[in-house]
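Reference record:
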Amino acid sequence: MKLEYSIYNIVIKPEQNLKFDTMPEFLFRSVIGMELKNLSCLFRNRKCEECDLKFQCAYSIIFESPISKENPVLKGRNYASHPFIISIENNEKPSFDMISMNITLLGKAIDYFPYLFYSVSKGGESGIGRDRVKYSIESVKHEKKEILKNGSLEISGNRKEWIAGANSGRGAKRKYLVEFVSPLRLKKHGKYVDELDYEDFLNAVIRRMNILCGLYGHCEKDPEKTAADTFNKKNLVTNIRWVENKRWSGRQKTTMLLGGIKGTIELSGSFTPFERSLLEAGELFHFGKNAGFGLGRIKVRELR
């Protein structure tokens, strides 16, 4: 499995402290989506699924992500996992005088970052939240290099690549602390789980990477069968709880609850290079349901 990606950091300064009664990722995702559609859409009276440009339009590719029902990755489905992830540092703060937002783009969606940047910028003119607080963009960085100069972007062609099992070395004894920075939503036997074991955790990351690599990168045939053989038993110490987050759905015109697992798990045992690469993938690309909304974000720290 291989996947090209680019992470852009946008620093936003609001005109006054911003307060959120839900995850700030939800609001910024809505703002970006609305502005991107206004920027990209040529036929305002057509639904995206009926538009001849749905496979070329920046908004459609990133926020609708249509695919053919004959696709080999998600058979029978005509919409894919989105090729972008949004995350905000310290997203549980009660208020913000400065916001650091990361936008991760996958595969061909990397070429559309200028559209996303101008959508974020335009959202600052309209304002965000109930009070429509306006904001300005202070900085845009790619690979720790400032690319916003005099109001214009200087885009480089540099991209990173995640490769399954790329970590060097054989199985090695390790101890990791995994923090669920945003709620993780996993289903098992049709129900959301509020407890977690190591196999469920790793299989969820594998499913996510099978889909993302199949859609936007490169994926071997049926890699899950070989992946299952690489699991090693681990000692697992959990400290998790179920939390709820509210999100307003403009499409359904209602408030939705997006609950999931938060807290930490401690893993210890022998980790193969493949397993270590999956922990890295969980950090980079999130996993579980609604990952594109900023959910399923983890941080992994090796313990000594």
